[in-house]
Amino acid sequence: MAKKTTIYDIAKRLDITAATVSRALNNNPKISKATRELVLKTAEKMNYEQNKLALALKSGKSNNVGVIVPRIDSNFFGSVIRGIEEELYPKGYHVIICQTQESEAKETANIDTLLNAQVDGILISTSSNQIKPFERIIKKNIPLIFFDRKKSMDGVSSVVINDYEGGYKATKHLIDQGFTKIAHLCVDKTIEIYRERCKGYKQALIDSGIDIKEEYIVQAKSNREEGAKAVDTLLKLENPPKAIFSSSDFAALGAIQELKSRGYKIPNDFAVAGFSNEPFTKFMELTITTVDQSALEMGKIAANVFLEQMENTDIKIEKKVILEPELIVRESSLKTAPKKSKLKKVN
Amino acid sequence: MAKKTTIYDIAKRLDITAATVSRALNNNPKISKATRELVLKTAEKMNYEQNKLALALKSGKSNNVGVIVPRIDSNFFGSVIRGIEEELYPKGYHVIICQTQESEAKETANIDTLLNAQVDGILISTSSNQIKPFERIIKKNIPLIFFDRKKSMDGVSSVVINDYEGGYKATKHLIDQGFTKIAHLCVDKTIEIYRERCKGYKQALIDSGIDIKEEYIVQAKSNREEGAKAVDTLLKLENPPKAIFSSSDFAALGAIQELKSRGYKIPNDFAVAGFSNEPFTKFMELTITTVDQSALEMGKIAANVFLEQMENTDIKIEKKVILEPELIVRESSLKTAPKKSKLKKVN
DNA sequence: CTGTTAGCGCATTCAC
DNA sequence: GTGAATGCGCTAACAG
To answer: For the whole prediction, is pTM greater than 0.70?
Structure first.
């Protein structure tokens, strides 16, 4: 292994001190132009590369930030991470990614490891209801930023979308299309974002003078199977719904497939709207109405909130950013569907 | 900021030496049970946490590995990274992710930064034709592993799928379905994996005694628009094809949509097969035949190749792993399509 | 079993 | 302007 060259090596070669080399390399003003240039040149010649670890140990800054998400191979989190990465990388930060697989224990373990690794900040979409690990982070005075799935804590910043509004908009849209018997697939009511979407759904109904039927609200995990099963359940009701607002695109897809297989015409017999704007929603034969969560932007904003906090370590910043969700109306809910033109995508 | 407690702090409290504390913490055999337990207990009490940076500086090992991919928010790379992460995390390694956006300059910059950060290894799916940065990595004796998009270098390990075989299988399948006029959408012939798929396509034709028509081989980037455009081009031929093997699922989708809009019945009038097994291929109204690349497995294997190299730094290991691609036959190419059963997914 | 010493590579304070 | 000395937190070699 070619031994890495350090500032000492180049100091020795030039018969000066490591301190001088360090200064030259860091553009310290009090250094003669001659030596600076000499140092720079020989550093280049010797393939010198700064050891960031030493710098990190010295400065107490690792230039790494930790990002914790339930899982990485989903379009949404992949895009958020991409946004974070794109903002942080040019500023010299690296992103260390951890997955929790929705496990509370793994979340705790991830936080532990990131703290040990001396990350300069932690950005997380939490998959737990615990609070202790987060208090540890705060006590260490390490910037903590929640995105998407937040936890309400004093003094902690968060970047989320207005899930309530998303649920409201989607439901209102279905009502505007003439539907009144609207069911809701709620992924998991123990998770705040889904509760919020459900609240929005309910409020939209109330605002239009439509009664809320509890039997219209069904739990269905975020996959096709559960979406199909939910349809099965709903259609067995004495007074079945004619439309569904699903908090998950995958469940919405499953619902649509099940409805089709039973001969329902969508959107005329039955309308469906999803949530997340997963790529497939616009690829389908029947494109799916959904709510966009601006994942990339969420990541970028979260990253910038972190950067702000790094620049102002003295003052405590608490920033609660709430992005407005965008309803994307497509064929699955639009009774007068636009005809597709050749070689042109619908939205 | 609550000052971090170091081994010195706990040494002082116990009136012993930092070295002893270190030994106790690291389960060094030559230490009395009494002191070990005492140290452990007070460490706990004082909320001690090991500073990995110091350890890294001392040992020369950062316990970080760098992963470089063209982009992170695609299903394929997201899954590969997930695989890598799942293997490495339990071994105490962190994954630092970088994107090149297909830019050679960014790739170089990423490598630079990762080397500065003293990563213990670099796993990369390259998006360039350069070789110099990789030689730098090797010269530093840092494990380098290519996955998916490799570069052929002596002494360097790689984990890829047999793209040739994938192209062959898909094409052969179309032939078996009775098609002879088969076109090919080649994403980018400057990239090895696509050239290989194209070779497989050609060989399958040859093996069945079908002539290769150069006008049947069209460049189409990995998106729907280019897939549709390619269909337009192909159908204008004097003797248009009746089937397409596309090296990209997205282009295949675009092709299918364009064909449908022109009234073609798929798969009877025209068959299509894609590549990558993107999630949407099995969600579609018309499910799409494709080739699975076992992304998760690829990531896991790449990670394990890295781990092996770390364990045997003395001997030089060159491991070329080639995964067999799996052809997944779906409706877009199967003339006698299976009927979908309710609540049950096709594949 | 435990203490002493030294060094990983760098930046910074204090001298000169 | 530059050198000398120091410490970031930890482990390992050498003593005892």
So the answer is: yes
